[in-house]
Design brief:
By secondary structure, this protein is an alpha/beta fold. The chain has a domain of about 80 residues. Helix content is about 40%, strand content about 15%. It is built from ten helices and twelve strands. The chain has a six-stranded parallel beta sheet. It has a two-stranded parallel sheet with strand order 4-6. A two-stranded antiparallel ribbon has the order 7-8. Helix 2 links the parallel strand 2 and strand 3. Helix 1 runs parallel beside helix 10. It is globular, with a radius of gyration of 19 Å. It starts with a strand and ends in a 6-residue tail after the last helix.
Length: about 300
């Protein structure tokens, strides 16, 4: 199976043009597989769809994904149209990934969806979006959406959708709906156990996920992990005695963790710097070091 390494920008990134364009160009030149954009409406991070389109327009090989884009609160037909357009215009370099949305009530209010309604709304919107990519007229009469004969063009050749999460309900959702799994803040044992649940759910629904569509997002931090992140990780992973084990602190540690994930069948990686380099020059230097340390791990 092909092992591939991409880069991710967190919700706190301050990258905008021209620095963002410099980083995109460096990732393309150095040979990284992909760039993933986080969504935070109230933060400094650029809108994923706009940033992906901007990046795809100035590259020819680099793939682009969202980590992740909120689906509940968006019109699934319009999202399907946007994704299909970008997938076709980029030559199939789009890696769409969707989620339920932030737990922060200030952030969530932008989408106009109550927290308890998100899962059901996600599932229905996902089904509509999938149907739109077939190119056939969509006839859907559900609890929240009602469409009769809507058609979306252009039709993408292939649209593999990635979902994340490690909670039991999230793993089952991946098994029912997704084409790939990209969790975050997990260890190799978590990935192995989660994959079992996903594959069991896939079997129940007579479907499958390709072996090379199991990935992981790995945050890293060279130096002390910020206290705010340690607190957030402790809340997210109360089962871990020290949540800092989730965050490699050197290129060697990051490479070793990637190899441990590969041992349990994970082959797609998105590495995310917790503390980003400063200006564009610092970013390019950082990415050059990353390429030297990490890209030799890739293989076909």
């Amino acid at each position: 199976m092909k092992l591939r390494i991409g880069y991710g920008l967190g919700t706190g990134t301050n990258l905008h043009d021209p620095s963002y364009g410099v980083v995109v160009d460096a990732l393309e030149r150095l040979g990284f597989d992909s760039l993933w954009l986080s969504e935070k409406v109230s933060g400094s991070a650029p809108d994923p769809l706009v940033a992906m389109a901007y990046g795809a327009g100035r590259t020819s090989r680099l793939k682009f994904g969202m980590s992740v884009m909120v689906l509940p609160g968006r019109n699934p037909v319009l999202v399907a149209k946007e994704m299909a357009t970008l997938a076709v215009m980029s030559g199939g370099r789009l890696l769409p990934a969707f989620g339920l949305g932030a737990v922060n009530p200030v952030e969530q209010q932008a989408f106009g969806v109550e927290r308890g309604e998100r899962a059901a709304l996600f599932n229905e919107a996902f089904d509509v979006m999938r149907a739109c990519w077939s190119g056939d007229p969509v006839h859907h009469h559900g609890a929240r959406f009602d469409f009769d004969g809507v058609t979306v063009q252009p039709v993408p050749k292939r649209m593999d959708v990635w979902l994340g999460g490690i909670a039991p309900s999230e793993l089952r959702r991946v098994g029912r709906l997704a084409d790939g799994w990209l969790p975050s803040f997990v260890l190799p044992d978590d990935a192995a156990e989660g994959r079992k649940v996903i594959e069991e759910t896939c079997a129940e629904h007579e479907r499958s996920i390709d072996d090379d569509h199991y990935g992981v997002l790995i945050p890293y931090c060279f130096g002390a992990v910020p206290d705010a992140l340690v607190a957030a990780l402790a809340k997210r992973r109360p089962d871990l005695e020290d949540p800092r084990v989730l965050v490699p602190d050197s290129w060697d540690e990051l490479g070793a963790l990637i190899k441990r994930f590969e041992d349990v069948g994970t082959t797609k990686f998105v590495v995310v710097p917790i503390v980003e380099p400063g200006d564009a020059t610092a970013w390019v230097e950082h990415l050059e070091h990353a390429a030297e340390a990490l890209l030799p791990l890739e293989h076909d």
